């Protein structure tokens, strides 16, 4: 029976060793699983954070793009309204020859220009102003201007453009600024 006892002892020792090794393996496996779960949790949290940041960036980009688009639409609408207003102001301004005080304005423009250019000038006007201008200027030409006058030397080397078109164009940006102030304050 000695051999049986040795065999039995070896089997029991092997079973104990097997249990110990299995216990250690289970502990190690459990530790590895816990570390993997922890690592997976960290990765999941990190990926959620990255996804959230990407969504937030995308949201901000879309909001910024929408704001830019709306600002452009508003700006375009304001510019169209200002252009329309400038057209209306021009339409009213070119009707100046029909208004009271125009002949005094026209005479002053011509006389001031003649002081600078000398008496022998050519006065270019529209056809409806000829009767008024004939009273104080001799050399008159007619042109397709809305009103006012273009006064030039006889050789036409120097001229002063006091036509309504020129006056309006020379003051367009100032008028536009005033229109913007009045419309969009």
Automatic annotation (TrEMBL):
<dbReference type="GO" id="GO:0033178">
    <property type="term" value="C:proton-transporting two-sector ATPase complex, catalytic domain"/>
</dbReference>
<dbReference type="InterPro" id="IPR002842">
    <property type="entry name" value="ATPase_V1_Esu"/>
</dbReference>
<feature type="compositionally biased region" description="Basic and acidic residues">
    <location>
        <begin position="39"/>
        <end position="59"/>
    </location>
</feature>
<keyword id="KW-0813">Transport</keyword>
<comment type="similarity">
    <text>Belongs to the V-ATPase E subunit family.</text>
</comment>
<dbReference type="Pfam" id="PF01991">
    <property type="entry name" value="vATP-synt_E"/>
</dbReference>
<protein>
    <submittedName>
        <fullName>Uncharacterized protein</fullName>
    </submittedName>
</protein>
<feature type="region of interest" description="Disordered">
    <location>
        <begin position="24"/>
        <end position="59"/>
    </location>
</feature>
<dbReference type="GO" id="GO:0046961">
    <property type="term" value="F:proton-transporting ATPase activity, rotational mechanism"/>
</dbReference>
<dbReference type="InterPro" id="IPR038495">
    <property type="entry name" value="ATPase_E_C"/>
</dbReference>
<keyword id="KW-0406">Ion transport</keyword>
């Amino acid at each position: 029976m000695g051999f049986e006892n040795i065999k039995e002892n070896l089997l029991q020792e092997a079973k104990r060793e097997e249990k110990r090794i299995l216990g250690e393996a289970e502990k190690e496996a459990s530790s590895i699983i816990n570390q993997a779960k922890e690592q997976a949790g960290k990765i999941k949290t990190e990926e959620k954070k990255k996804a959230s940041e990407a969504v937030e960036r995308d949201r901000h980009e879309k909001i910024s793009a929408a704001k830019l688009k709306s600002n452009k639409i508003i700006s375009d609408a304001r510019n169209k309204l200002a252009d329309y207003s400038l057209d209306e102001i021009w339409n009213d301004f070119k009707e100046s020859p029909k208004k009271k005080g125009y002949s005094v304005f026209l005479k002053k423009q011509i006389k001031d220009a003649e002081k600078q250019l000398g008496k022998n000038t050519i006065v270019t006007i529209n056809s409806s102003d000829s009767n008024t201008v004939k009273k104080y200027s001799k050399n008159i030409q007619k042109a397709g201007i809305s009103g006012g006058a273009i006064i030039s030397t006889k050789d036409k080397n120097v001229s002063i453009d006091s036509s309504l078109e020129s006056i309006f164009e020379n003051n367009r940006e100032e008028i536009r600024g005033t229109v913007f102030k009045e419309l969009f304050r």
